[in-house]
Amino acid sequence: MSLVRIAVRYMAVEALKGATLVGNRVFDSQIGMVDEVSNPGTHPYLAVYTDRAVPGPDDKGVFSNGICTMLLQTSASSAMTTVDENGNSTIIDGVFATDGGFEFTLDLIVRQALAALSSSETREAELFRSLFNGFTKVERRCMGSPGQNQRIASHQVLLELPLINDPVPGVVLRPEAKLMQVIEHMEGHSDPEVNERARFMRAALEGPSDSWHLLVQKTGMTNASAEKLSLHAPRDS
User: Of 82, 150, 153, 189, which is most buried by a Cβ count within 10 Å?
Assistant: First the structure.
């Protein structure tokens, strides 16, 4: 759908890894994570999703990304508990697996996540924030379910992000362009799948580079409309 949406999710995940109580259990668009928390032996996690986007007042053309809603979700359940040396059921060390303990744990994870994304001390967080023009909205939601055999609690944070626009295919990006920096970050990742995704993203940037094709793709007009406006590419005589 959008290279920038891919990039902003990727950089959010990289900025969050190791920065909260969930450690490296941070996932990009992981489907079915709420179901997984009911499995014994699992642990709290963070998942990053991008949802709907609405155009801003100045957004025009099919490569405008508008104001995108990013969703951060973390969950905990009684299946994640352990028993300490005193026989107490805990969700994390020192925090009992009570309803209040679940809420405390999830509140703390959310706090740590927001601190990580707004940090000025990591390159990943800086690259994440470079892909949009400030947070326009932060909304928190709490959900819980007693379940049949266990308790499950979830917290969600909705972030509204005015994303930068996708480059029109064929536009040559400078190495210092934010999207190019993200692609280079992906190319240097230790996961071969991330490297392969970077290759696909570079390929998606390719396209006709002459000004005529770039204009048509950027504006979304038809060839006939452009010709009426005397914007058509020169024809052979």
Answer: 153
